[in-house]
Structure formats: C-alpha cells, structure tokens
Amino acid sequence: MRFTFWGVRGSIPAPGKSTVKYGGNTSCIEIFIKDRNQVVIFDAGTGIRELGNSLMTRYKPGTLSCNIFLTHTHWDHVQGFPFFTPAFIGGNSFNVYGPVTSSINDGNQKPYLSLKDLFIEQMRYQYFPVKLDEMKAESKFTEIKEGHYEIDGLKIQTKTLNHPVLCMGYRLSVNGIDDLVYCTDSEPYVNYFMNNSSEMPDDLFDPLFYQTLKSKLSDPIGIEKLSLAMQENLNLVNFCRGARALIYDSQYKKNEYPTKINWGHSRIDDAVSIACRAEVETLFLFHHDPTRSDSQIEEMIDYARELAASRFGNKTINIVAAEEGQSFEL
Ligand SMILES: [Zn+2]
Ligand SMILES: [Zn+2]
C-alpha cells in the first residue's frame, strides 16, 4: 500500500509563509492499494479537498468507490467533506465510517445525532449553501465502535482514544505485514487523576508517577479507575505494537501541556514513549499545532529522535514529521 498525507495540521487550517513545508490543511490521509485499485481515506479535514481534485484526475466520473474512516467528527476532521468534489459526481460512491458519541443522559445510550445527521448538520443552510442530499454521489454512513472489522478485504481494528468526544484510532492491514496505525486526537488516559498537570512525568509509564497518583487517592473506586486508566495506556501500546508506520498525535511540547490538559492531545514525549514501547518501524509526528512553524516542527523532530535514543535506547526507530504531499510505501 502507499499512503499520502493530504492534511497534517490539527485544530484549524494554518496556511501561510511559516507552514509552507509541512502544510496548513487539517487531517486527511489517503491509502492507495495499487493491485486492487482501491482508495481508502482517513479523515475528511480540509486536506480532502486537494485529495478530491487528485482523484478527479485519476478516476473517470462515476467510477470512484471508496471507504472513508473518520477518527471523530470534530471540525478539523470533517470540514473538508463539503468541498470534496468526487462526492458531487453521480455514480461515485462512498462508505463513511466513524464513531458517534452517545447521550449520557438517557438510559438507552442513543446517539445525540447519527453519523449521517452530523454531516447533514454540518451542511445546514445556515452554515453552507449546498445540502448533503444535493451531493450526487451515493454516500452511506455507518457508525463504528471499538473492535475488529473486515471491510472490502481490509483488516481494520479500532481502539477508543482519550478525547473530549468518542474518537477511534485505526489499525489497517491489507496483507498482514503492512500494518499502518493512525492515532490522532489522543491524550494519555491520566488527565482525570492529576490535580496539577505539571505532575505529568517525562515518561507517561514511569512507575513512580502511578504510585504518586495512587497515594493521593483514598477511595477504592478511584484507585480502580486509575488502574484502568493506566491499563488503557498499555492497551494503546499493544494496539500500536509492531506497526510499520505509526501516525500519532504530537500536538504539544512538554512545557505547553500544563495549559492544554483535557484538550485531548498528546505531548511529543508521549508519542515517542508509545512508539518506542510498541517497537514500531516509523513514527510520524502528526496533528501539528496551528501555531507551529516549519522550523519549530524540525526542532520537534530533533527532540523526538534524541528522546528515543537517550530515554528509550532506541536508535533504530525512524522519526519524521508528517508532511503534506508526501507519500510512503509499505
Ligand atoms: Zn483534531
Ligand atoms: Zn478532536
């Protein structure tokens, strides 16, 4: 498979002179499986607009059919869809998969809005001049949960990530040896237990950190919840284990995190820690903060490489920053 970054930025598009190299569009990745002529898309941030233009040149009108997997429905992961030209072409078809947050107030756990309703809502006339049902391609919307799926010959595993809305990480494999893991909008599962975010240690898995948090809790239910949270962090490592490519949320530097706690994102340190523990081949730093300039991203790559070698003794892992327009073969 070949994957291409069409959008690598987090939160909001960030065009301008300082982001020319790594790009300003929000999350969108294309996976192309050549021998099947199959296109898979991760997220529909603003990067999907240029991907759509590319697909228009590669596929005759009415011949494109593909699966779009959404991590979640925050703006930076869906707002490109109304500008995705192939969706306006009759005969094309799209299966859109994504998680939907359930209501916590009703016992039936019914979604507030279905996945399709969320897309209809985004294109309401107050926000956008064209309605979803005016897009001529056939679109089907399917809600997914954590689990294993087999879709059009793709092996897909999903993992719930810690984010302010239900958010899924994806592990995709075509032939069993080309695993690509995409985990963005993911905060370590310990934010609820820290009174002060500066308590976060350099290494998320530092046993002393867990012991310190535990010593501050008095009730057994709290201790049980802390233990489950730490287990979820380990589950995430296992989810990423041995991947050829891990595309991971690296929005913040260590010193920025204290003011961004509960916003649902990771520090570079957490991305490196998970990637090294999971023994992945290449870590792609992803979901760059909109304020991050190209030169600052380069500093982050150096920092991450140094961290992998010095803290984890890992000198073989490749660490790069996701860059708009770049493609990689697996
Ligand atoms: Zn995001
Ligand atoms: Zn988000």
TrEMBL record:
<feature type="domain" description="Metallo-beta-lactamase">
    <location>
        <begin position="40"/>
        <end position="187"/>
    </location>
</feature>
<dbReference type="InterPro" id="IPR001279">
    <property type="entry name" value="Metallo-B-lactamas"/>
</dbReference>
<dbReference type="InterPro" id="IPR036866">
    <property type="entry name" value="RibonucZ/Hydroxyglut_hydro"/>
</dbReference>
<dbReference type="Pfam" id="PF12706">
    <property type="entry name" value="Lactamase_B_2"/>
</dbReference>
<protein>
    <recommendedName>
        <fullName>Metallo-beta-lactamase domain-containing protein</fullName>
    </recommendedName>
</protein>
